[in-house]
């Protein structure tokens, strides 16, 4: 029961923080939304095309190349770990043989 009361209280606070107006029929007015947005963007420069941007094909090729390099590095790391484990097992066997 305490959990329900806690969740209900949290939900009430969340809904209370949603906004100042309690009248849902109040529509957004262009003067209060669009005009300030237009004024804010009035001095912004027009967008320009990035000449250095990569094409989709170039992005795919670069990703494939990077993936291949990462796979090779992962394989090399796995081989190194396998070699280290083999060396550790051999050393353990040598120590056990020396102890007998």
TrEMBL record:
Keywords: Signal. The keyword Signal applies. Residues 71-100 are annotated as: Disordered. PROSITE patterns: PROKAR_LIPOPROTEIN (PS51257). Residues 1-19 form the signal peptide. It comes from the Bacteria. This is Uncharacterized protein.
């Amino acid at each position: 029961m305490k959990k329900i009361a806690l969740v209900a209280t949290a939900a009430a606070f969340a809904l209370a923080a949603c906004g100042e107006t309690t009248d849902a029929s109040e529509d957004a007015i262009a003067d209060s939304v669009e005009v300030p947005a237009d004024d804010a963007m009035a001095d912004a420069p027009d967008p320009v095309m990035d000449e250095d941007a990569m094409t989709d094909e170039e992005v795919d090729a670069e990703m494939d190349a990077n993936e291949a390099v990462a796979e090779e590095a992962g394989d090399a790391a796995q081989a190194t770990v396998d070699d280290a484990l083999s060396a550790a097992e051999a050393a353990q066997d040598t120590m056990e043989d020396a102890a007998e």
